[in-house]
């Protein structure tokens, strides 16, 4: 927080922040005649959407004192935004200049506010040197505010006092690492290989840097991918290509060897991933190998120590020209930083070097090439003569042919094969092409708006259709990667675009475009929940085909003008997530033909998230945790270091352990042994299939396709066993060859026979279907022997004991869904790591284990006994909701914009979390039934005292059952249908009041609802399925709570209801009639109607079936 002084001498504490759309009203109130005279009439919201940078100065009580908006081109129609450079002198360019488009302030604070805003903007935008105001009111008068930098020089003893406060925060850590006299020792050690310098402002030292040419390059090459940089050694002379002669007076004080063309492709290959989808899929060997020789000369120096006053940290790059002069024969500057350290502003101009997969160093390596100091970076439209240079630039890229094809189409017709307009731009430094960008007009913007939450970043109505572009190709020499956002900003300006989008398709779809290196500059856009429209019933009232058409799902990334100068925080912390349950971030739900559906994450969800673009996926098994070294040991011997470890291994179906009872010699009067909870330790037969994840299901599916004869035995009581039986029938296996073997009720892992169907009608339908198809069902059986106790490879027979006659089955394949439990290797790993395990891994309400660096969630866990909630665990809740809560708890460590909770309850840590989303179960059952069961979270379902609504019959395949609670809200949904139904629509019904469902109870009682499937296809209910309906409900709730009753001392509606319940209010009418009159007379009803119309109007593209105001 800083202070400014008004013209009258009043001192005000102020904070400067990015402007938000909610500030528009206060900004408008500050616009006066003088403002209009200089800036013209301004639409503030429109300006905020188009400005590259907008800042607001707030007072201590959060009132707007001043606002300024800046853009990368002059305002008004003085000159075209793509060609303003000749309009000003040559010292002003797109890289170092911004234009002021609006400044408003409270009159008394106008001068102080202007100074504070200008100072902060110069600090925030590193390359900025000039802020220009160009206006037509005075004949095109231009006013510039220029920033003067400060210089670096050799260290002097008298600078020590100035630097003391800079090192104050880090003194303890530095003393522990380097001793109490580290600063003096660095200064005394200066020689040709070691230097120290300060940066001063107005005669005061504000920053310190120590650099050294003595680097352990062997160690760095062992742990980082430095092959594309020649291992930071001097290249041989034959590898070097000099630049073309430079114009007189434009020679930079850096090495002439800007780029070696044959190595440029190699540099790009490291940063532009071969396949955008396959960022990392497990440990791989580097394709770069170095053959060190005795004569190799280092080509890098390192930053040993760096510190700068926080007020000047955005100008940290001022050090770089000076330190490169100290090492004129070296081209690279490197710095290593701890992984958990916040990213320094200095590092925004550096490149993070990719570490080897075997690296366990607790630090990140950043690198900067001296050519990155060049300020002649320019962007222009591509011309035909650029093609040879572009070919050299992209020759090592996997998508180079696609890029060159698009470039040729731009040269020939300015359009692609579909007739969509193309634009191509090249980036130049010293007349050499160092980057290329190709964009096309975005023709699917309506689909994007409907399917992705793009309006979290822009107000769509303030952007024309022609201003949306699709980013096709982005290639930039890694030396200049710190100019990536500037390059995108220039493309937006030159192309007259306001937004760019880039699609990342799933691995099974060919990726034509290459932009992987720019993803860090863009923001991922969340996909939106989609309404499943009954198109035939809607007819002409259906949404446009541009919205409802079926496309290959993809992940969408976005950038707009506002984001080009928005800083992004880089987090280098290593977060390792172990497991494949629905709770974890990367999960593989059982959605193959052989398993039930979790309805948490499906293939489409994975495609729209494109997690492979942001994380590394390692296919291995955890066999150890080294808590001291913070490493996870994998089954292949590799070690994965972590700073935060999340265990979400869940519970898996375990290989069944036979009791060993010989059914051939079993006396009839012998008491059978209880089913032992023992772990199977023998060899697992090849035809014993235990299905736990998507990979298991796909493997089993392929294996079963080659089995043409013999019995298939399915062992278990869960819904997975039933869906597996249906999958076998659909694969062509005769019902007589399928044996469904149920465990005894007391021995089942989670359910007794048939109990996985809480609705008895569903159970009855499935039993009839199994009987009709000829599937053999055996109840209450315990596995006794495989192959009569002989070697089990392969399984040819299975023996079971039961309360009745023993059972022996010939077997070609044994599919196991018998019992779930924590994997033994996971248990052993957790136990060996001394994590508290009490039947399951013990956690607190915030997911912490007894190690603060290790968290856990999902069915693997249980709550600590101090909560007195032994019967509750994460397995009783919606796994997606639990996973999102886990992610939110981790995000608080890294997101600086998240404010801590104000005054949280003192006993909050004594309560387990309260999750409210429904638990979902479903799948395709025998008989071809599509099954869905939605119920409230909890450990048990008590008999509901509410109303039951039922339509259809099992026999006709249209069974639909709703259970309402005592408050007439939907608590349970059960669907069993021979026809597919819109699952995502029906999930939106959970928790809704029957009045919201078009007075469902009244209509049902009057006999007007004959088929709930048809009822929930009607036009009126489609708004409830919209993804923004929950927000609309919250808005309605706020209106009701904020409405003040006029004739009752201004109390709120909620307070009035409380008084009515407590019999403290006299009224003669029926309560609902009385409340309706009071609410209407208080203006609440009018506000509610207005909000409803606004909701329908704002979402009219998806809700075309509703009449809009003025339509009739």
Description:
- With 1112 residues, the chain is of the alpha+beta class.
- It is built from 29 helices and 44 strands.
- It has a seven-stranded mixed β-sheet with strand order 1-2-3-4-5-6-7, sandwiched between helices. It has a seven-stranded mixed β-sheet with strand order 8-9-10-11-12-14-13, with helices on both faces. The protein has a seven-stranded mixed β-sheet with strand order 15-16-17-18-19-21-20, with helices on both faces.
- α26 runs antiparallel to α29 (1084-1098).
- The longest helix is centred in the N-terminal third of the chain and has 15 residues, at 110-124.
- The radius of gyration is 34 Å and the shape is globular.
- The chain starts with a strand and ends in a 14-residue tail after the last helix.
- Mean pLDDT is 82; it is low at 150-155, 241-294, 584-596 and 747-754.
- Residues 609-861 form the FAD/NAD(P)-binding domain.
- One of its GO terms (molecular function) is oxidoreductase activity.
- Residues 913-1024 form the CFAP61 dimerisation domain.
């Amino acid at each position: 927080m800083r202070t400014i002084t008004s013209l009258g001498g009043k001192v005000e504490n102020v904070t400067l922040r990015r402007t938000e759309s909610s500030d528009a009203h206060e900004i408008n109130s500050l616009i006066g005649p003088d403002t209009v005279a200089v800036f013209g009439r301004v639409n503030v919201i429109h300006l905020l959407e188009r400005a590259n940078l907008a800042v607001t100065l707030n007072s201590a009580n959060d009132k707007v004192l001043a606002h300024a908006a800046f853009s990368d081109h002059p305002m008004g129609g003085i000159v075209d935004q793509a060609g303003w450079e000749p309009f000003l002198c040559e010292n002003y360019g797109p890289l170092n200049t911004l234009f002021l488009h609006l400044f408003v302030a409270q009159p008394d604070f106008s001068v102080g506010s202007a100074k504070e805003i200008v100072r902060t903007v110069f600090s925030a935008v590193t390359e900025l040197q000039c802020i220009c105001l160009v206006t037509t009111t005075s004949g095109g008068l231009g006013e510039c505010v220029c920033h003067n930098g400060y210089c670096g020089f050799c260290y002097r003893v008298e600078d020590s006092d100035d630097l003391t406060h800079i090192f104050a925060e880090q003194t303890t850590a530095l003393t522990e690492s380097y001793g109490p006299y580290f600063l003096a020792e660095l200064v005394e050690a200066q020689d040709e290989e070691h230097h120290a310098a300060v940066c001063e402002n107005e005669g005061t030292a504000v920053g310190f840097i120590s650099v050294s040419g003595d680097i352990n390059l062997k160690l760095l090459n062992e742990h980082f991918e430095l092959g594309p940089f020649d291992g930071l050694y001097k290249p041989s002379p034959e590898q070097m290509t000099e630049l073309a002669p430079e114009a007189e007076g434009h020679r930079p004080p850096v090495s002439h060897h800007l780029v070696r063309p044959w190595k440029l492709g190699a540099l790009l290959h490291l940063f532009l991933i071969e396949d955008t989808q396959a960022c990392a899929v497990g440990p791989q060997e580097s394709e770069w190998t170095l053959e060190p020789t005795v004569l190799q000369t280092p080509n890098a120096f390192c930053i040993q120590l760096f510190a700068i006053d926080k007020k000047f940290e955005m100008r940290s790059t001022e050090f770089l020209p000076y330190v490169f002069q100290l090492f004129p024969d070296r081209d690279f500057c490197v710095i290593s930083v701890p992984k958990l350290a916040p990213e320094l502003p200095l590092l925004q101009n550096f490149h993070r070097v990719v570490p080897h997969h075997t690296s366990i160093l607790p630090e990140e390596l950043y690198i900067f090439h001296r050519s990155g100091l060049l300020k002649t970076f320019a962007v222009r439209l591509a011309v035909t003569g650029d093609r040879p240079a572009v070919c050299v630039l992209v020759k090592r890229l996997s998508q180079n042919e696609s890029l060159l094809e698009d470039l040729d189409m731009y040269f020939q017709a300015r359009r692609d094969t579909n007739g969509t307009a193309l634009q191509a731009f090249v980036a130049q430094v010293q007349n050499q092409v160092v980057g290329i960008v190709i964009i096309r007009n975005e023709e699917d913007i309506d689909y994007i708006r409907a399917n992705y939450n793009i309006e979290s970043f822009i107000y769509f109505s303030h952007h024309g259709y022609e201003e949306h572009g699709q980013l096709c190709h982005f290639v930039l020499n890694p030396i200049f990667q710190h100019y990536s956002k500037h390059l995108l900003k220039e493309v937006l300006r030159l192309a007259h675009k306001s937004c760019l989008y880039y699609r990342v398709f799933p691995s099974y779809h060919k990726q034509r475009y290459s932009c992987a290196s720019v993803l860090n500059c863009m923001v991922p856009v969340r996909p939106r929940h989609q309404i499943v429209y009954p198109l035939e019933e809607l007819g002409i009232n259906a949404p446009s085909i541009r919205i409802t058409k079926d496309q290959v799902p993809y992940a969408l990334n976005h950038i707009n003008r506002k984001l080009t100068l928005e800083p992004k925080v880089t987090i280098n912390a290593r977060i390792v997530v172990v497991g494949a349950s629905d709770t974890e971030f990367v999960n593989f739900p059982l959605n193959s033909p052989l398993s039930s559906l979790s309805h948490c994450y499906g293939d489409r969800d994975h495609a729209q998230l494109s997690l492979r673009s942001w994380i590394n996926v390692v296919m291995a098994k955890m066999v150890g945790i080294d808590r001291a070294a913070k490493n996870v040991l994998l089954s292949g011997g590799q070690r994965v270091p972590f700073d935060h470890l999340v265990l979400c291994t869940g519970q898996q179906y375990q290989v069944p352990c036979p009791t060993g009872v010989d059914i051939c010699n079993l006396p009839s009067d012998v008491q059978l042994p209880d089913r032992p909870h023992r772990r199977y330790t023998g060899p697992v037969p090849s035809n014993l299939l235990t299905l736990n994840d998507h990979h298991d299901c796909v493997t089993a599916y392929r294996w079963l396709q080659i089995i043409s004869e013999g019995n298939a035995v399915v062992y278990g009581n869960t819904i997975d066993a039933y869906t597996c039986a249906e999958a076998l029938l659909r694969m062509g296996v005769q019902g007589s060859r399928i044996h469904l073997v149920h465990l005894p009720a007391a021995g089942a892992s989670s359910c007794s026979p048939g109990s996985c169907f809480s609705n008895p009608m569903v159970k009855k339908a499935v039993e009839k279907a199994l009987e009709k198809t000829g599937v053999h069902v055996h109840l209450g059986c315990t596995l006794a022997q495989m192959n009569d106790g002989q070697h089990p490879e392969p399984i040819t027979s299975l023996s079971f004991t039961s309360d009745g006659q023993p059972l022996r089955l010939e077997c070609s394949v044994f599919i196991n869904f018998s019992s779930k439990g924590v994997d033994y290797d996971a248990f052993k790993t957790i136990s060996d790591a001394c994590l508290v395990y009490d039947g399951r891994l013990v956690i607190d309400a915030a997911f912490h284990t007894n190690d603060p660096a290790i968290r856990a969630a999902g069915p693997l866990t249980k709550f600590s006994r101090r909560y007195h909630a032994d019967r509750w665990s994460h397995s009783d809740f919606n796994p997606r909701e639990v996973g999102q809560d886990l992610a939110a708890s981790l995000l608080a460590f890294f997101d600086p914009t998240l404010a801590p909770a104000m005054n949280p309850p003192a006993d909050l840590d004594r309560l387990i979390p309260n999750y409210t989303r429904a638990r979902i179960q479903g799948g395709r059952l025998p008989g071809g039934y599509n099954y869905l069961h939605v119920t409230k979270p909890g450990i048990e379902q008590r008999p509901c005292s509410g109303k039951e609504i039922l339509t259809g019959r099992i026999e006709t395949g249209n069974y639909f059952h709703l259970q309402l609670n005592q408050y007439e809200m939907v608590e349970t949904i059960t669907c069993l249908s021979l026809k597919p139904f819109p699952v995502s629509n029906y999930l939106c019904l959970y928790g809704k009041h029957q009045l919201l469902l078009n007075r469902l109870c009244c209509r049902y009682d009057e006999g007007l609802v004959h088929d709930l499937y048809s009822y929930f296809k009607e036009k009126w209910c489609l708004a409830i399925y919209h993804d923004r309906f929950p927000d609309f409900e919250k808005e309605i709730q706020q209106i009701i709570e904020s409405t003040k009753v006029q004739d009752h001392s201004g109390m709120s509606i909620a307070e009035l209801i409380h008084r009515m319940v407590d019999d403290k209010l006299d009224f003669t009418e029926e309560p609902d009639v009385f409340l309706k009159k009071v609410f209407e007379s208080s203006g609440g009803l009018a506000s509610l109607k207005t909000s409803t119309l606004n909701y329908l109007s704002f979402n009219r593209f998806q809700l075309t079936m509703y009449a809009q105001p003025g339509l009739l």
